[in-house]
Description:
- There is one protein chain.
- By secondary structure, the chain is an alpha/beta fold.
- The protein has helices at about 10-20, 35-45, 65-75, 120-140, 150-165, 170-185, 190-195, 205-220, 255-265, 265-280, 290-305, 310-315, 320-330; strands at about 5, 25-30, 45-50, 60-65, 80-85, 95-100, 105, 110-115, 235-240, 245-250.
- The model is unreliable at about 230-250 (pLDDT under 50).
- The strands form three sheets. The protein has a six-stranded parallel β-sheet with strand order 1-8-5-4-2-3, sandwiched between helices.
Amino acid sequence: MTATVFCENPRLALAERVAAEYKNGVVGYVGRADEELFRLLAERGNTVSMGQPFGEHIRLVVGSGGYDAVLNARKAAAGRRLFLITDIIDRCCFTKIIRKRDTEIGYQVPEIIFYSYNHTRQTSASAYASLVASLAACLDAAGARRECSALFALAKRIVRLLEAPLNPIYCAGFVRDICGLLERIGGGLTSLISLYGAGAPPSADSVMFANYLILAAFIRFTKYDFNGIFIGKDRTFLRGALPGRGQERYRFSAAFMEGLKAAVGGDEALSGYVRRYLWESGKKRISAAHPDRVFRDILELEEVADDRGLLASLCRMGFIDYLITENNREWN
């Protein structure tokens, strides 16, 4: 499991860790050039290579920066040790595998991530956006299971975290742990969205906004007589594989719908998350793609996600298309 270390000087802590465990080795580096970090590594006997692909003599990679740098470092470090230094707290730091229909794409799991005690706005914004994403992923996974009371209980715990004072140190461990949990039980589509963003390059704003729209769709889903909407569709029935049961048809029970409604909250709760996010990020508005584009990216990601969670089911039964059509005039 990835260790998360918060300290006064993460560059110094990383350089000392590298020197202790990778003596005099050449370090592969991914991210914007960081002269201070390079100096600290050199003083302890390690040289830095920024050229990719890395040669076989490079057995440890350091990634430094935001969302793109983290993802690029995880790809470049395939089969090697990986240390990260970043100010973002997001599932993209921890997600192990992206599952597609015909293959699995592995991202090297970092051994350790170094954070500063001196939290930036980026740290707070990404941590809060990741909690919102965790709520969406938790409810998404509940849609793929016959017994979902434990996931609804976990969702309520996440809601309490969203309403409480933000603790980035606790959030880092929580996001890491729930990421591993959801990888085992579902949430493949929401994991793709978290890893790549939706409608825009990965950022705290794109993570927050994409998951805001997902939660909004879940809220709408609990309010519609969807049996009357999907003419020619499976109506109340969805296809999916339940754990240990193989391929079968099932429908969302009234108990599930009530549990989802209680866990996701209403429009006021969702608006509260947005206001809180803006406060944590120090912004007046979210900079993200148009809702239409975000939803269409989600529909495209569903095509490559081997997933039977709630969001993927809503995509396949036409509910997301319906929301795009219904709201297109309002958005424009």
